[in-house]
Amino acid sequence: MMADGADIEAIKAANNRFYEAFGALDIEKMEAACETSERALCVHPGWQPLVGWDLIRASWQGIFDNATLMHFNIRYVSVAVQGDPPEAGWVTCVENITSVLQGRANNFGVLATNIFVRTPSGWRMIAHHASPQM
Fold first, then answer.
1. Which residue in 48, 89, 113, 118 is deepest, having the highest Cβ count within 10 Å?
2. Strand positions, DSSP E, the chain
3. What is the pTM of this model?
4. The pLDDT value given to residue 3
5. Do 53 and 127 meet the contact criterion of CB atoms below 8 Å apart?
6. 75 contacts 109 by C-beta, under 8 angstroms
7. Pairing relation of β-strands 86-101 and 122-132?
């Protein structure tokens, strides 16, 4: 069965909540956008994989504490879902980022895959994998 448009739109909305939290440098919003279990996974560009929400949360907090600006222009968004009814979905996209980290301005591109699972409280990101754009 193909996912209906509502599932696709709900996953896009969950993906947008993640980038809104990231852009706001807001750990509470990030926590609300993510599944906070031990099965959660995050790979920041150039980092080793982080498994489990405690490590992932600490990584986001460190990024947020050292940033004064994080602006995203998300492009080339592709959404897919798995299951009948869908229990998982993923977004692949390009993050064009303007940031100020530790007083230094940067512009760069990142290829990202964000994996979402359906939870009783809606779609939550369970995995974020970002790699530098070549």
1. 89
2. 41-43, 50-51, 67-83, 86-101, 104-119, 122-132
3. 0.93
4. 55
5. no
6. no
7. unpaired
